Amino acid sequence: MGAYILRRLLLIIPTLVGIMVVNFALTQFVPGGPIEQIIARVEGEADVFRNIAGGGDAGMQAPTGEDRYAGARGLPPEMLDALEVQMGFARVVCDPDFAGPPDLAAPECRKQTIGAAERFFIMMGNYLRFDFGESFFRSIPVVDLVAEKMPVSITLGLWSTLLAYLISIPLGIRKAVRDGTPFDTWTSGAIIVGYAIPGFLFAVLLMVLFAGGSYWKIFPLRGLTSDNWAELSLWGKAIDYLWHITLPVVASTIASFATLTLLTKNSFLDEINKQYVITARAKGLTESRVLYGHVFRNAMLIVIAGFPSLFLGVFFGASILIETIFSLDGLGRLGFEAAVARDYPVIFGTLYVFGLMGLVVGILSDLMYVFVDPRIDFERRAG
């Protein structure tokens, strides 16, 4: 098993590099980089100021052939050069006899553009040291941003996964035992409806029904805690926390709950029809002893071993829209805002961390298989 784990760990390196290469290459073809975003903000603020001042279009310069960016109307080239250097698209190169620090204002120094390939290798070298740089627009280290938003996403992912397992496993077992009965039929219909409803649409429905929309105002609309959180007792904080996360967790659980229930049912049905179950019944064992003493361990193998992957799927998949709808400041919302603003350090830093986590979780899933059923030997199969 040790050799298998070592091979999987070594495989993480080329896989992670491949993920980063593909996404880095895609960003090179996406129009509107971070400098264009800054230019748009600066020009938008300038237009508002001119309109307020009554200047209209007076003083605006038409774009010239020297403009390197669309919309850079009258912005000084020195400002654009400084932005490129600051964001890592260029570096300052000075003459050998220049004694001072690199400075674009010095006549002995000039800007040197850094190619895409070189920028990628510089970025990956920093990421190997877990140096993800700072956000372009927030001037905050990416690590601090991720650490700040992580508790919200962990809350959604962990509670949603636990809730899905607590409901789906008993329900799936009962559906397998009562396969073909009216109970199995109507619960299957409810599960299909739950699976068909998108999580964000179900979140909106919950808000309308229970968060002061058109019916009842039972749960809060936003945030994980109330404004008076610090003043509450320990028990009051726990109740307040559960009160705030109820709707987001239920909304993010709906799809995974449906999938896991059907997976549990089908897994149990496969085991119930096997020869060893027929033999156990022929020996006179009770149905409960057959089900939980023999079938349960084999049937739950794929369900329990899939816990890490399911958690990661809920953690990353449903968080963006759920966090936006319920105004939760988590990783999903951070990634969405970074993509819109072309905040490359946040985009690639979080992508690197999440990709690494996903690959490690894949190894943990294999280890869970071995833990649940020691008969499985991945090393022998690989050989």
TrEMBL record:
UniProt xrefs under PROSITE patterns: ABC_TM1 (PS50928)
Alphabetical list of PANTHER family matching this protein: INNER MEMBRANE ABC TRANSPORTER, INNER MEMBRANE ABC TRANSPORTER PERMEASE PROTEIN YEJB
Principal localisation: membrane
Pfam families: BPD_transp_1
Gene Ontology terms: cellular component: plasma membrane
Protein name, as recorded: Microcin C transport system permease protein
Keyword Cytoplasm: no
Cited InterPro entries: MetI-like (IPR000515), MetI-like_sf (IPR035906)
Membrane topology of the entry: Multi-pass membrane protein
Protein's GO biological process: microcin transport; transmembrane transport
Origin organism lineage: Bacteria, Pseudomonadati, Pseudomonadota, Alphaproteobacteria, Rhodobacterales
Location within or outside the cell: Cell inner membrane; Cell membrane
Keywords for the protein's UniProt record, in alphabetical order: Cell inner membrane, Cell membrane, Membrane, Transmembrane, Transmembrane helix, Transport
Family to which the UniProt record says this protein belongs: Belongs to the binding-protein-dependent transport system permease family.
Residue ranges of the TM segments: 9-26, 152-173, 185-211, 241-264, 299-326, 346-372
